Amino acid sequence: MSCLPAWPYSPYIAHRNGGHLAPENTLAAMRVGAAHGFTMFEFDVKLSRDGIAFLLHDDTLDRCTDGHGPAGALDFGQIAQLDAGSWHSAGFAGEPPPSFAAIARFARANDLACNVEIKPCPGQEAETGAAVAQLCAHFWQDAAVPPLLSSFQESALAEARRVAPHMPRALLVDAIPADWAQRLAALEAVALNINHRDASAERVQAIHAAGYRVAAWTINEPGRARELLALGVDAIFTDNLAEIRPA
Ligand code: G3P
Ligand code: MG
Asked: Is the dihedral of CA 219, 221, 225, 231 positive or negative?
């Protein structure tokens, strides 16, 4: 067995900060996740038109805010005026899309670990990877536990590696590609973050044997979560914060 890279993270990761309990990718969601005992949070980061990093999953504003159109077509000052909470429930009405800076500040103040998923607007892969990695190096300078940077976009991770080589990286994949080991080696990644449908004992063992950690997304059924952790998966992402959570 190869020597595995450091993994100073909880095996339970709150997906999009608060899973299904709160509006995704908000600060309120991170507070809800922390109140449920989570110490590790995954969220999606992209750039506004004026280059400010903020949290949003989709390419467009429509599903998770009261705005419309491409997320990268507005300055952050305009995005910050939007309501990213009402779509979820009235209790979160008025919750704004947060800047990455605000989320990092809250995480650091409360000793919460982060998986920063670089989720670029189309065509901004390299620019977003570089900007987010640079911000991570700044926000987490001197931190005992660095954030884990991940992305489906290899060009974003390659830029992250260039500007902040010491920040740990994970390649996100939906279907595991045949050449996963070469891709991880090229990115000097520490982990492969896989769709849980692709997880099996043989695959987890093979990834570990090659010297990489493995995390699986997104598991909302408690029995499946137990199964994956028993297989040796290093972490699972969940939206079901009420039933799948740290002891
Ligand atoms: O990082 C795990 C998971 O968040 C990847 O998929 O679409 O939820 O960002 P998605
Ligand atoms: Mg994500």
From this structure: negative
Q: Is residue 117 within 6 Å of ligand 1 at its C-beta?
A: yes
Q: Which amino acid is at 242?
A: A
56 phi, psi to nearest 5 deg: -170, 140
- The token pair that represents 233 in the structure block: 């998966």
Residue 2 CA to ligand 2 centre (angstroms): 28
Ligand 2 centroid, distance to 151 Cα (angstroms): 8
Residue with tokens 């899309």: 97
Q: Identify whether 88 is a catalytic site residue.
A: no
Contact assessment for residue 167 and residue 141, using Cβ atoms and an 8 Å cutoff: no
Question: Using a 6 Å cutoff on CB, does residue 65 contact ligand 1?
Answer: no
DSSP state of 49: T
Q: Give the pLDDT of the chain (247 residues) as one tens digit per residue.
A: 469 999 999 999 999 999 999 999 999 999 999 999 999 999 999 999 999 999 999 999 999 999 999 999 999 999 999 999 999 999 999 999 999 999 999 999 999 999 999 999 999 999 999 999 999 999 999 999 999 999 999 999 999 999 999 999 999 999 999 999 999 999 999 999 999 999 999 999 999 999 999 999 999 999 999 999 999 999 999 999 999 999 9
Q: HSE on the CB side for 123, CA within 13 Å?
A: 6
Tell me if the pTM is above 0.85.
yes
What are the structural domains of the chain? 12-238 (3.20.20.190)
Q: Is the CB of 41 under 6 A from ligand 1?
A: no
Q: What are phi and psi of 186, to 5 degrees?
A: -65, -35
